[in-house]
Design brief:
Blueprint lengths: L12 H4 L26 H16 L7 H8 L4 E3 L7 H5 L10 H22 L7 H26 L3 H4 L24 H16 L13 H15 L2 H15 L12 H4 L8 E5 L13 H5 L7 E3 L1 H7 L11 E5 L2 E4 L5 E2 L2 E2 L1 E5 H14 L3 H15 L12 H12 L5 H7 L4 E2 L12 H4 E2 L12 H6 L12
Antiparallel strand pairs: 1-3, 2-8, 4-5, 6-7, 9-10
Helix pairs in contact: 2-5, 2-6, 5-6, 6-8, 6-9, 8-9, 9-10, 9-14, 10-14, 14-15, 14-16
């Protein structure tokens, strides 16, 4: 039996430097084993270590598939194509404390641990003047990665900050290499957000603004920061950061796809919207059929498709350009074609896009009752979708902004989190939600439904006596 604990004690030095090593779960050992971690000594080694974290993000158990489809499979806009498909247990909310997958816990903590190695190295390294820019970019990326992974964890295992001002249990915050004997308790959601925001603010003063496809940069860091403030309910800061980000992007290579380019942009290797995208190739991936592109395509595993709820929303405007990246194959068989570059078998995965910055600015502004600014930012997305359409400040509501998020960001993992942090009700009422295994509580729910959170993995509960399980899943 494999043991999957919060802090597996053997971290392979060579793994850190591998662009596409073996599945790290195979190398895990129980916490009773001796520490054998080695230290980084050069900037080149630190850059190799960063590549190891990027490789973790690429895995299908993380952004390569499961984390990316998680938020949509648990919402109303997408659905499993059958009750035995890979996506089905997420869609049906059928996981329990015994059979819940460990990847949502294990992979982010692996990334955090490796990021901590890099941060510890930069704490001690004396960079020369000629190395300073390179050094700062390394440290900035590592801080962003640590924040990104903590943020991913608290979204999966912690209640929305806005439900109780972050008072409920989140996840352990890990900012240093811990000994084998350490059995950390869960920090509150608020404490996790405090660390996420601190890391992103610190990273912002270090990381490069230069475009470097496949790697994080200042724009990606600031988008994550704006998102964290928005999820926290700090709308003033979310607006400030997102508006400044968009201003800084003016004149850069980062910009919205045009209306004309939108349909074909998703099949291109790179894109002007991508602050950070994962670039994949068949040479680097041996298990590509497990990736989101193959799962979403009807000629692949046909695991997940758009729902009638989403299609009804999008078809409110039959000229919406986003209809051109949907294959309307048959009744209740509508397929999203965002993951088709370079092809549906091995696709790139956009993670952080400039579109989201406009939507964050619009949402934060409308919550601040700054409707003129909200309309201006939202119209960048609305009018791109259909140049004949626009919204005015007078008719702008929070629901209108959130519906535009649904239209634009579908398939990118946002819907469950967007609904829950705004205390919206997810209602699967479209004609395509036909599974007999859907229950009343999985057809219609809000943030009071305990299964909007995943249970802490069983092996972590067994190994750590200080770990507390999420309510509803037992001890």
């Amino acid at each position: 039996m494999k043991h999957i604990y919060l802090f597996p004690t053997i971290i392979s030095f060579l793994f850190l430097f591998s662009a596409c090593g073996n599945d790290w779960l195979d190398e895990m050992t129980p916490q009773t084993s001796a520490e054998t971690e080695k230290s980084l000594t050069t900037l080149t080694e630190a850059e190799y270590a960063l590549n190891g974290i990027y490789d973790l993000y690429r895995k299908y158990e993380y952004y390569g598939a499961r984390f990316t489809y998680y938020g949509d499979a648990k919402g109303e806009d997408m659905q499993a194509r059958g009750d035995s498909k890979r996506v089905a247990k997420y869609y049906l909310f059928s996981f329990n404390a015994v059979d819940a997958p460990s990847n949502f816990w294990a992979f982010p903590y692996q990334a955090i641990r490796n990021a901590n190695n890099i941060i510890t190295f930069t704490d001690k390294y004396m960079a020369s003047d000629s190395e300073k820019t390179r050094f700062n970019n390394i440290r900035g990326q590592a801080l962003t990665m640590r924040a990104m992974s903590h943020f991913d964890l608290v979204k999966i295992y912690g209640m929305p900050y806005t439900k109780d001002n972050g008072a409920s249990p989140g996840v352990p915050v890990v900012t240093e290499n811990l000994s084998n004997e350490t059995k950390p308790a869960r920090n509150t959601v608020a404490e996790v957000y405090t660390q996420v925001i601190k890391d992103l603010e610190d990273a912002s003063g270090l990381i490069s603004k230069s475009r470097n496809d496949g790697q994080l940069n200042w724009f990606a860091t600031r988008l994550l920061l704006a998102r964290a403030y928005l999820y926290k309910g700090d709308n003033a800061k979310a607006y400030e950061v997102s508006a400044d980000l968009l201003k800084q992007a003016e004149g850069s290579s980062f910009k919205l796809f045009t209306t004309a380019a939108y349909p074909s942009a998703w099949s291109q290797q790179t894109g002007s919207e991508y602050f950070y995208a994962i670039y994949n190739s068949a040479d680097e991936i041996s298990d590509s059929k497990e990736f989101i592109s193959y799962l979403m395509h009807r000629s692949g595993y046909d695991d997940i498709s758009l729902s009638a709820d989403y299609m009804n929303l999008l078809l409110e405007d039959e000229k919406d350009v986003r209809l051109k990246i949907i294959e309307r194959y048959a009744k209740n068989r509508d397929y999203l074609l965002k993951y088709v570059a370079p092809n549906y078998q091995v696709s790139n995965i956009p993670v952080l896009r400039i579109s989201e910055a406009y939507l964050i600015a619009a949402e934060a502004a409308v919550k601040l009752n700054n409707k003129e600014s909200a309309a201006a930012y939202l119209n960048a997305i609305v009018s791109r979708a259909n140049p004949e359409k626009s919204v005015t400040a007078d008719d702008l509501t929070l629901e209108r902004v959130l519906n535009e998020r649904r239209r634009e960001l579908v398939g990118e993992g946002h819907r469950l989190f967007d609904a829950m942090r705004n205390n919206q009700t997810i209602e699967r009422k479209g004609t395509s939600h036909t599974s007999a295994l859907l229950t009343d509580e999985t057809r219609k729910f809000n943030w009071d439904f305990y299964k909007i959170l995943m249970p802490i993995p069983r092996d972590e509960m067994t190994a750590n006596p200080n770990m507390v399980q999420n309510p509803g899943y037992g001890n």
